[in-house]
Each structure stands twice: as C-alpha cells, then as structure tokens.
Amino acid sequence: MDSDLAFALRGVSSTVGSFALRDISFSLPLGYVMGFIGANGAGKTTTIRCLLGMQQIQQGEIEVLGHPVPGPVAQRQDLGVVLDHTYLVGDWRLTEVERAVRPFYDRWDTDRYHQLLGAFGLSPRARVKDLSRGMAVKLMITLALSHQARLLVFDEPTSGLDPVARDELVGILGDFLLDEGHSVLFSTHITSDLERIGDYLTLIHGGRIICTGTKEEVLDSYRVVRGGPDDLADTPGVRLIGARRTAIGAQALVPAEDAGLLGARVVIEAPTLEELAVHLGAPATGHGPGAESPGDAEPRAARSISSRATK
C-alpha cells in the first residue's frame, strides 16, 4: 500500500449486467483534485462504486488512503461522498439529519455542522424534501466536511446546478484543499468545473481508461486539427480520434506526435478540456483512413501518459 496516494485502482475489471469495466488503472497523489471525465454511460459511476467497495470486482486491486478495498470499517471515517441525488429521508429536518448521521462518525463535529449550515444559507429547520438541487448538494458537502473527511468523492454533483451554485462549489473545494492531506475525486461531464481546480485528469470511455495524467500532460498529449472537407481524408500514419466531417469542414483530435505529419494544409491547435472530452467520448465516424474510435486509441495514449502520472 502507498501512503502517498489518496487512492489507486490497478487493473480493475468489473461487470454490471451487460456493461463491463476493463483493466481500469489510475491513481491520485494526496493533496490534489482528480477530474474524472466521460459521457453518460462511460463507466464513471461504476468505477466510483468499485472504489467505495460498493461494487464487486472480478480482478485487480484498489486502495484508498493507504488501505485495501474492501478495508476496515473505520475507513469510512475518512471518506465523504457527494452524489447527484440525496440519500436522506425527505421529511427529515436538517437537525434530524445530524442526529441520524452523527453516530456513524467518531470525529463528528456538531459546531462545524451548524457553522457550515449557516455559511451555506441552510436553515436547521428546513426539510430535506424542500431543498433546491443546489442546496441539497451543499447539505451533502456539509455532512462530508463535518466528520473531517480526508477524501471527497463527487459523482456528478453539479449536474443541474446553475452557474452561481457551481462557482460556490468550486470555492468550497478550494477551502477544503488548503489542507495538503485532503484530496478530491470529481466525476463530471461538465468540463468547466475542472478548469479552475483540476490537477489531474482521467478520461473514461466504454468502460476503459482513454488517458490519465496531470491536466497539463493530458492536454499536451493531443492536438485539435481543422481543415476543409477533404483535408483529413488522406492522412496515412495519422490517428484521427472522434473525427467530424461536414460539407464545409472537418475536425479531429490527434495524438501530439502525429500532428506534424499533417503538414500545412490544416490548422493545428492545443485542445481545450471540453474539446478533449468531446472527441475522446465520441464514436468514430468511420470516414477515411486513420479514423479511430477513442477505444482504438486508448492503449497507446493511456500508457504514455499514466506512466508518468502514477509514479
């Protein structure tokens, strides 16, 4: 076990119905934020369930904060989980929420709970069912921070939140990360949430890791190329990922090492995080030589970046 890692998944495979995670490997050092990106159905939630010990794995190993998963019951003391929905009884008032949750945590801090309720504008007398989407997320963050969690795991917490609420959440995470022993796994398909706080990125597609590494490493490993309708039609040796063609132009993502093979007939630019997610999460168009689906591109890309990111 590695005490310098917030978590690590190594060669994890798991099957849920007809869906399968295949050879999932990525890790996060302590004190950082990992953005976990993928389209709906890519495998983000299944991976998180495996990480939390809620989903059985067929092979591989998982560790969280220096302990194997499944680990000791005390491990839950250090984990704060924020889902895209509340798991609390709707008729509970927020004072009753505390009474129900407090016995499960040895380090529960009542003063901290009420301090955070006030800071987030949550009335202790409010009922769970009457909270807005944003307020419900803030309540779950309050619960996580009130038992002094060291690792926060967010599963699509900002889906449906307005920009103001999402900005507030980024500020909350910034305060949480002032402690160098705190870490965050942030699963989302809204890439703008990660522009300010993401340190590491992992992209998943079809149950496989496409790439993983620091944000800078991942972005620097690809280029977006744009040209006329036929400019990407004859590209021997160039791997076109998530290529899109219309009557007026063509665009694709390519590994950075392939970009130089395209010459001056196309525009080559560094990708934004959103462009990276869109192309890596898109099915192949099947048009022209070199066209690939993200799954086809995965083995080379994932190895080249993650070997540096998980050292």
TrEMBL record:
Task: State the residue spans of region: Disordered.
Answer: 282-311
Q: Which residues cross the membrane?
A: none
Return the protein name. Answer: ABC-2 type transport system ATP-binding protein
Identify the domain of life. Bacteria
In terms of CDD domains, this protein maps to:
ABC_DR_subfamily_A
GO MF assignments: ATP binding; ATP hydrolysis activity
Arranged from A to Z, the UniProt key words for this protein are: ATP-binding, Nucleotide-binding, Transport
The ABC transporter domain sits at 1-231
**Record-linked SUPFAM superfamilies:** P-loop containing nucleoside triphosphate hydrolases
Organism field: Amycolatopsis saalfeldensis
Pfam families according to UniProt: ABC_tran
